[in-house]
Amino acid sequence: MAILQIGWLGWTAVTLLLLAVLGFVALRHAMETNAVAVLDSADKLLRGGDGAIRQVAAERYGDDASQKVEMFVPADARAPLPIVVFIPGGSWRSGDPHDYRFIARALAPRGYAVVLAGYRLGPKGRFPAMLEDGASALRWVADHARARGGDPDRIVLMGHSAGAYNAAMLALDRRWLAHRRLSADALRGMIGLSGPYDFYPFDDPATIDAFGHAANPEDTQPIAHVRGDAPPLLLVHGSTDTRVRPRNSVALARALTAAGAPTHAVLLKDVSHEGMIMAFARPFSRDPRALDAVTGFLAQVTRPGPSPAASSAASPAVQAPGR
Q1: Using CA atoms, how far apart are residues 48 and 161, in angstroms rounded to an integer?
Q2: What is the mean pLDDT of the chain?
Q3: Are 57 and 71 in contact (CB under 8 A)?
Q4: Does the chain have fewer CB atoms within 10 Å around its N or its C terminus?
Q5: What is the DSSP string of 34-90?
Q6: Distance between CA atoms of residues 248 and 297, nearest Å
């Protein structure tokens, strides 16, 4: 009898509470199973959709389902645009470029064509397969991007975590792009977000799985391929990153500087590994430091004209102070 006397207000409150609990459980499950997809959906909702960008390609460059690219340009694109090729992270085990459209929403409206590039994952993607795929994705860009509004003479590689590793190796070790008849010297720059560049000996299941079989494990490390004529690199890392320690960016920047390619590691105070990539999506983009560092670097290295000469290939001193 007491239950029946709750009344409609009481039942409404109970129903709303139950829905809130179910919603929280569903969100938590979604974040645990595919956090990046949830992040992308939230960003799309908070930006009011994809009206500011236009998809101009969704194609395969290989037989594996992960060997795919998606390309976006500003909705009002007028001329050939500099191209940002973004490589997702995911410990070389996961990472679907489709879930990173928030990168396109953040960068394309600022005047860039954005290519989201996937690569083989897990056992199929063990070293050096992820680098072979990155080179193949860049071959696709060189062959097809101009017809879709991009300028393949102004390409910047960008990646987060494992994707930053892939991007760094493609930029520093010329052999991978050479396999696809491309020159690493043609890249305008490379942007690494929370990347692992100096992590041998391997002490993590993900790195052991991806690199433990290599005959020369030291050769798998970006820091082993520093060169004085490297393209400009922007290495951004969070000070509280415990998954990939900030020393990776600091060590690579110091090695490049010593080799004759002055490079600045940008350390963002109180930013975690996940927080770095979250900063490119709403509502987390309220902290603009990572995006400001990236767009400042892009503006400097993608100016129209020939690629910077080797003697002027120093990484611009893009700074993003902690707050």
Answers
A1: 28
A2: 90
A3: yes
A4: N
A5: HHHHHHHHHHHHHTTSSTTEEEEEEEESSSSTT-EEEEEEETT--S-EEEEEEE--S
A6: 20
| 6 has a pLDDT exceeding 60 | no
CA atoms within 13 A of residue 243's CA, in its CB half-sphere: 20
Contact of 217 with 201, CB cutoff 8 Å:
yes
pLDDT for 258-310, tens place per residue? 999 999 899 999 999 999 999 999 999 999 999 999 999 999 999 987 765 44
92 and 162 in contact (C-beta within 8 Å)?
A: yes
Residue 63 pLDDT more than 90?
Answer: yes
Per-residue model confidence as pLDDT tens digits over 20-41 = 544 433 434 444 445 899 999 9
Q: Is 286 exposed, middle or buried (0-12, 13-18, 19+ CB in 10 A)?
A: exposed
Burial class (CB in 10 A: 0-12, 13-18, 19+), 68: buried
- State whether residue 312 is helix, strand or coil: helix
Are the C-beta atoms of 171 and 186 separated by less than 8 Å? no
3-state secondary structure of 16: helix
Half-sphere exposure of 105 (CA within 13 A, CB side): 23
